[in-house]
Specification:
The protein has 182 residues and is α+β, with helices and mostly antiparallel strands.
Length: 182
């Protein structure tokens, strides 16, 4: 409880930051997710040297078209293809049943700037397994720009069957994200 935490740190200096409505809702939903949805975690180290070399070659070829592929674009495409090949990885917990989805929709976590309240939203690349790297890159870039400026519509944030939150660009090797259900 709030009182117990305040009591624990009563002898120390701290700055208190009140939560806005969005952060309160997110905190409640993520607590609900951890308490009501079974979780399991997998970890695998992968050498990306060949991918990074291939990405550099592709980006050089695509430079004149104004396209630059990110490592995240490759991760999205690889996950989408893997889920299409392994349908039980493209599923959702629904209380007393599991829903195995026919459509592979990959959610991508997008950080919002502090002036927009900070936090994360998830933009959804629908039918990601049917899209090229270039299409995925363009769509992710468009979702990110819209999220940070105008905001995403409910349609653009709904229907993910898998979500990617990548902190690799910050040197993070492993973390466990909790996603807002469903």
């Amino acid at each position: 409880s709030t009182d117990a935490v305040l009591k624990t740190y009563a002898d120390r200096d701290f700055e208190e930051i009140a939560l806005d409505g969005m952060r309160k809702i997110v905190a409640a939903r993520l607590t609900e997710a951890k308490q009501t949805i079974p979780h399991f975690y997998l970890r695998r180290d992968i050498k990306l040297d060949a991918l990074l070399k291939f990405r550099a070659q592709l980006n050089k070829q695509l430079e004149s078209r104004g396209t630059k592929l990110s490592v995240n674009d490759f991760i999205i495409r690889a996950c989408a293809l893997a889920m299409a090949k392994n349908p039980f990885c493209n599923a959702s917990w629904a209380g007393d049943r599991i829903l195995v989805h026919q459509q592979v929709n990959v959610g991508v976590a997008i950080a919002l700037p502090e002036e927009k309240g900070g936090g994360l939203v998830v933009g959804v690349v629908k039918d990601a397994n049917l899209k090229s790297l270039r299409q995925i890159s363009g769509e992710v870039r468009s979702l990110g720009e819209k999220a940070r400026t105008k905001g995403l519509s409910m349609e653009e944030m709904s229907g993910a069957t898998f979500t990617i939150s990548n902190l690799g660009m910050f040197g993070v090797e492993q973390f466990v994200a909790v996603h807002n259900p469903p």
